[in-house]
Each structure stands twice: as structure tokens, then as C-alpha cells.
Amino acid sequence: MRMPLVEIAGAPRERGRQYGEQARAQIERSVAWYSEQFTATASLSWDVVCTNARRWEPFVEAYLPDAVEEMQGIAEGSGFSYEEILALNGRGELSSGNPFADDANEECSSYSILPEAAGDGHAYCGQNWDWRSAILDTVVMLRIEQPGLPTIVMQVEAGQVGRQGANSAGIGLNANGLGARFGSALGMPQPYIRRRILNSWDMNEALEAVFRSQQALCTNLLLSHRDGFAIDLETTPGRHGWGYPANGVLVHTNHFRYFVPKQIEATYRYVSPDSIYRAERIERVLSHTREAETGEAMRALIREAMSDHFGFPSAVCNHADPDDPWYDRNETVASSIVDLTTGEYRIAHGNPCTNDYELLPWNLYDSATQPQPAAAAAA
Amino acid sequence: MFPLVEVDAADPLERGRQYGEQAREQIAVSIDFYRGEFELKSGLAWDEVRRRAPQWVPVIEPFHPDALEEVRGVADSSGFEFEEILALNGRGELRSGNPFDTDGCTSFALMPEASGDGHVYCGQTWDWRVGTKESVVMLCIKQDPKPKIVMQVEAGQIGRHGANSAGIGLNANGLEAKFGFGLGVPAPYIRRRILDSDTLNGALHSVMEAKQALCSNLLFTHRDGYCVDLETTPERHGVMEATDGMLVHANAFLAYIPPQIADSYRPGSFDSLFRVPRVEGHLRRARDAGSTNETREVISDALSDHFAYPNSVCTHPDPRDGRRWETVAAAYADLTSGEYLVSPGNPCEHGFEPLPWNLYS
Hints:
The structure holds two protein chains of two kinds. Chain A is α+β, with helices and mostly antiparallel strands.
């Protein structure tokens, strides 16, 4: 396994400490990268960033109180300050109102395949995660076992408490930046929203996390469930749009497909135009999933879709463009295939055209934590 | 089964009297429940509710005078005041303080080409507060020369959802958004006027004429194989048609987003976002049903769905957050045969039984 594995368990502060200790080297690289990048692009010194980071605390405290303790634990375990960990969890939002801001550069391609469309009858979800080339070595796979809540497996930039992954309740989460920005209020950074989704036992709780948050950025969230359900939510600081799989397959990239928010209706243009053809290219390959009758065949097809080089280097399988400035150079840093039916989680560290999907040693459903009574009664 | 109440009179006052006499006990339960509920949600004491309720009279009078007479009749014979029965018929409007708390219902219509047995079906779950179930009655209204109506109501209400002898089915779902003017025609009068209609055109007119204060989703089904869904608001109404012979709706705007709330709309009832596709997923199987029994099994499966339990299509109280909701009733009409089937509570436990009333006999 090329990607570092971080496995934590226990109460929030305790598991935070474990996280910080195990991911110290990656957190160090992440802090080094973002402090340099914010200075280069936003004229924000790391000191200023850390001073401001505290302003998020009341939001997080109200929405996901355990995360505050977990981050204090991460700080203790890694030797970095609590404010620095807060900053790493607000890296998308921190850049609000400056050129670096466009989260659209987080150019991801996500998919969900329902059992009815999969030749092997399983539910799949996953994505290419395209982000700064420089953060490749800050990414870790994190497994969180937490009392009373589902066990989570996810890929994160070290120090973050949420990003994209799946949980032992059979819920998968994939995410894509939507670039657009409106409203000026300070809002809930993405990692907390995503973590609350993955803390959910059922789809109702997951949607509650999305609909009851006050966020500042527009982000696409693809929620999949092993029972053969998927919904995609184009979330904004105001209204959220949503859509469902067509013929059992849903693909989403980095543009609004279901609506254009009223606030930007008159001026909206795709910030990442390649998003238009990336979605279409993946859909074209995934339209053949019914013919893939084994897990192996399904994964081969998914790999083909996610390794697509049409429009290279701004392709589904995204490669760094040497013409971009150093601080704005992106590539696919990780690609995932989650089989929500079997609980197998596979990750390619880097571009899937050259890196194999490796099976994680953790099965999603190998969890010590059991659902609470209400959820259990349905089974 | 819920208590059956049957009224038969051309005179509205007399119909109301028959209703009030038969449903006295359930009306008492309902008043008891809403007395506490209104105070909790709107801060209005029962005396205050009674004092203000007559303000509705001039609003309702031009829209549906007969229904108002019926309300008077219900009061006469049940021993409650006219104002109290008015309040029961304005319960949606009276407890509109909390935007996250509307009827959660899932409605469906199945057209002949999609039902497997070639019949036309419509129905819904009716999710409401624990404590209201004891107040529910099944009401059969014979009101010659107007169409006969079969519907489920909270006792004392003169309209909710059901079907009539003209082959029109009405299903309804709350839409929690609020905007526009203050005092409007409460939902029961609008729904009753729909079910008093001989024709679909008449039914649709009722909705277009109504000056309402709340947003509400109305699904119209006709036995001749037609259905249409209207997302009604105090101003514009949105329209949605069937896809592949099927239409499913819940408690979120799906056809359009009213411009008044377009920049910020988020459904409070976000569980609608999975309830709709879950029911669609089940009902898609009806097409392959080889008999009426098989079609009805598919419908029963759809309305008993437990995905995301307990906040599922078939809703149960949630011990985790103390949410006191449940599916108090589920019902569907076979508009082709005229049968009306009811589950007196969660369909997962009760199953569906036909009422002794046929719409067309």
C-alpha cells in the first residue's frame, strides 16, 4: 500500500491524538505547503490565517462539537497548534475573496453505480480527486472507529477531519468543487459537513447534515447507499439543487447540472470548462457496466473510465499542466473505488492510468460499533 | 379499522349534524390534541383561537358556502362550538409557526399502462403527529346531486384526501414554504371543493380560484387514465405530469421553485428526497404484475418501505430525537373498480383492508 494508513479509535480527544501522532510527517508537509501557498496567492501570512481560524470555532461547536475536541487532539499529537489544524480544515474557505479562492480548481470527477446497473449487482461509488500536485504526499487513508457512531474510512489531507469516503452504515460520500461563490458570510467549512454526513447511520441523517448547515462555498456532494440509492446535491450557501442516477448511473464533475443558483444566474460560466466533457466521457464508459458481470470486470471498467485521457492534460485522469503557475498545478492525487455491497475500499495513490487500485486492509463493515436502536429496528 | 362515518343528505347543515353526532368522541380527541398543539406551535391559547376563528368566515363564505354550513352542523350535533370546528379545519394554518414541521406524506398515482392490471390507482401515506390517530375517521359523504365522496379526515374536518364517484382522486402533501398574504382559505375547504367536482376541469378550477395562505401539494388522478400534480402556493402553482405512467410526490417542491423563495429554498422535509425515488422504485415493478392482487402487493410494499427507518416512507417515531411522528394512515383508491383500501396506521404492521363503500355504487 503506497498511501499511508492511519487508524484511530476512541473518544474524540484520544482519537485525535492518535491521528496527530501517526500523521505528523504529512501534517508538517501540509502546513508547509499551505503557509507558502496562502502567502503566494492571497498575501495572507500563516500567522494571520491562524489568528482568523478561531472565528470558525463557534460554528463547529454548534454543528459538530466532537470535531473541536478531535482537532485539539490532533494538535497535541502532531505538535502543531490547534489554530493550524483549524486552518487545514478551512483551506477552501480561507481563501475567500482572493484569487486563490476558486475552489473549482479542485477538479474532481465522481460516480455512483446502483446495483441495478452493475453487472455484478453491487453498489459502487468513488471518484478522482484532483488537487494541487504538491499535496500528493500529504494525503492519508484514515479509518475512524468512534463510540456510538459508524466507522468511517476516508481519504483526507492529513489533519482534516472529513473529506470523502464511506462508512459502516453503507453510506458513501464523494465531493466535487463547484467554483461559484456568492454571499459573504463566514460559513461552515466543508470538512465538518462531510464528516457529519459520514457520521450518519442513515440517509435521513446524512441529508440533515447537508440541509441544516450554513456553508460559504458551493460544493457538489454525491451520497450513495448500499441499498441501491444515490442522490447528488449541488449545495450552495442558499438553495441546494439535487438529482438522481439515470439508468442506475450518476456522474458529476464541477459544474451545476441541476440548476443555476439565482444569485449567479445572470453571469454564471463554468470555471473549469473541462468539467463539461469529463462528465460525458465517464458516462460513456459507465453505460457498459451492465455487461461487467464480475467484480473484477466492474473495476476494470471503472478504471478505464477514471483513466480517460481525452483533453489531456485536463482530462478525467488529470495531469499537471506545466503552463500553470506552480501554486495552481493540479493532478489526480487519488482515485477510489468503493464496493458498498462487500465493503471493499480500493484506492489508487496518484493517477489511475499508472497506479493500481490497491485494496485497503479495512473492510467497511468490519466495525465494532453497532447502530443505535432506531436504525437497528429496521433491519 | 378506523371508525366509519356515513352521512347522507342534500342539505349541508343536515350532513354536518349527522357527521357531528357519529364522530363526537373523535372530535373531542382532536380538540384535546390541538388545544395543546396550537398553544405550543403558535402561542395561541384555545380561547384566543376560538375568538379569532370567525375571521375565516368571510374568506371561506364566497369560496365554499356549503362547507361552512356543514361545519355549523358538525358543531350543532357534536356539542362543540362553531368556532372550535372552524379551528379544526384550520389546523394547518394555525400551527404554521414551525417551518420544519409539516405533514410528511408520500403520494402516488399509477396509470393503466404502468399498473400491471390496467387499473388506475392513487393513494398516499399520511404522516402526522402521534396522538392524532385516535381522531381519524373514514368518512362517506352522500350529497346528491353532488358526487359521493370517500375520504379519511381528522374528525370534524370537512375535507382532506380521498376520492369521489366521478372518478376523481385527490392526494395531498404539505409543502412547508411560507410566503404571501396572511389569512387565506384553509386547505380543507379547497380539498373539499375539489372532491365536490364532477369533472377534472371543475376540480382544477377550485385550485386556481382559491386564495390560500399555505403551500400545499395536490395530486389529481382521474379514472380515465390521467393524473397531474399541482404544487400550490399563495401565488403561482407549479405543474408536474406523470413519467412512464407514474407520478410520485412528497413534501418538497419538485416541479419548480417559487421565485419568492428561489434564492434560499431548502426543503425542511429533506427525507422527501429519498421517499420519492424509493416509492418510484417499488412502483416501477407494478408494470410486471399479472393480477390485481400482485399490483396491490407492489403498492403495499411501496408504502411500507423502511429505507432510512424510522424517517422512512412508512414513518415511525424516532426515539433518538424524540420526534413524535408516525404514519397515522395509508390509503389508496382503485379508481377503476371503485374500491378504497385503508391501512389504519403503519402499513408495515396493518396491511390494507377495503372499506365497505364502493365509490361507484
